[in-house]
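Hi P.,

Sorry for the delay on this. The queue was packed all week, but I finally got your sequence through. Input first:
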Amino acid sequence: MLVIQLLFALASAARMDTDAAAGSRADLCDRWLLVQYEDGNDGANSSEDVTRVFGSFRYLAQEWNGEREVVLAKKQLPNGCTKTYVANCEQGGFIKKEECPGQEPSLTSKCLGGFGCLWYSRKTDLESGEVATVFDPLEGHRQMSSGKVMFSTLDPHRGVALERIARNGWKAEWGCYCCQHSYSALSNPFSFSSGRVAWSSRSGGLQECMLAWRMIGNGMNHEQPADSSVLGVLALIPEFVGTFLDIFFTGTVARHLACSATCTLREAKFEPNKYSYTKISTEFDKY
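Then the structure:
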């Protein structure tokens, strides 16, 4: 409850509301808090170089428990009002503090899971004239005038384990790779035959990119294929069909979206590898 006390100390007359029943404000301190933000600007309609603002960060279990004030973002409205989003797992999500000139501040509890809570994720969109500052603990203060900020919680016991890349000349196995940096389709970590970025090791020996899942063969024993289970072998059929449909009907868009979602669920020990890149390898592959 320390965050609430701190906020009340800043505005003694503030009122506290909640958007759900008391049962929804379950203690979520055993979960991770995920914050994702992006300004929605891909630069496609601009004649000038545009620096995109996007990223994600997490607070692991017990890191947002109210012992210190964890401010996630602040939004400035054209009418002079401000909205501040403060993490508090003891309140089951975060506290939105709204302040307007000449009015008393209001505090609203926003749940992100737990019994009776209908929302496991939240977002705030930036309307015309609004400016948001996201307090990314790794990247610093990131400012946006468009786009959205999203909040959600994750179960750390369901994190995705990553594997080192099985290097084979030009080739990298078909699959989803979680990387330490973001790459575009024209400049990806597999782009150069000599000294590929994907093979380099950083942050305690982790490769720049690590394999999250294969497009075909997730249930196989790749060290000893003969020891693979029957279910692992049978799973090759739907994996092959799904890969075929994805490549020829969506241009791998579906897999890219799935990969992006997967990499946010990586285990804590793979924290640096947070960006997704779906690798498609063919006989004519030049990436």
